[in-house]
Design brief:
Largest sheet: 4 strands, mixed
Helix content: 25-40%
Structural class: alpha+beta
Radius of gyration: 14 Å
Distance between the termini: 31 Å
Number of helices: 2
Order of helices and strands: EHEHEE
Mean pLDDT: 92
CATH topology: Translation Initiation Factor IF3
Shape: elongated
CATH architecture: 2-Layer Sandwich
Length: 95
């Protein structure tokens, strides 16, 4: 498992504005880039968060990299097989 760093934000079940605030807070420091990471259903939230942040809050924000892949998740309780889940990483940079 990868270590979480300050420039990574993992998108999950919270409301989108929670992640928007996390991005704004990260850029208010000395960070020049932030990466949003999401899997499965949270991918749509990550895209929404990116667009809300770019258009409403930080005007000079650019999407510099989008990486999509598939991750193997361990089986849930009661299941026998692992499952494949889509994932996305969106890297944002401030000018």
């Amino acid at each position: 498992m990868t270590q979480k760093t300050d420039d990574e934000i993992f998108v999950g079940n919270k409301p989108p504005m929670s992640y928007v605030l996390a991005i704004i807070t990260a850029f208010s420091g000395d960070l020049k880039k932030v990466t949003l990471k999401a899997r499965g259903q949270a991918i749509t939230t990550a895209v929404d968060v990116t667009e809300i942040t770019r258009h409403r809050f930080i005007k000079g924000l650019k999407v510099t990299k989008i990486m999509i892949n598939t991750v193997e998740m361990p089986p849930r309780e009661g299941e026998t097989r692992s499952r494949m889940v889509s994932a996305i990483e969106i890297t944002l940079s401030k000018e």
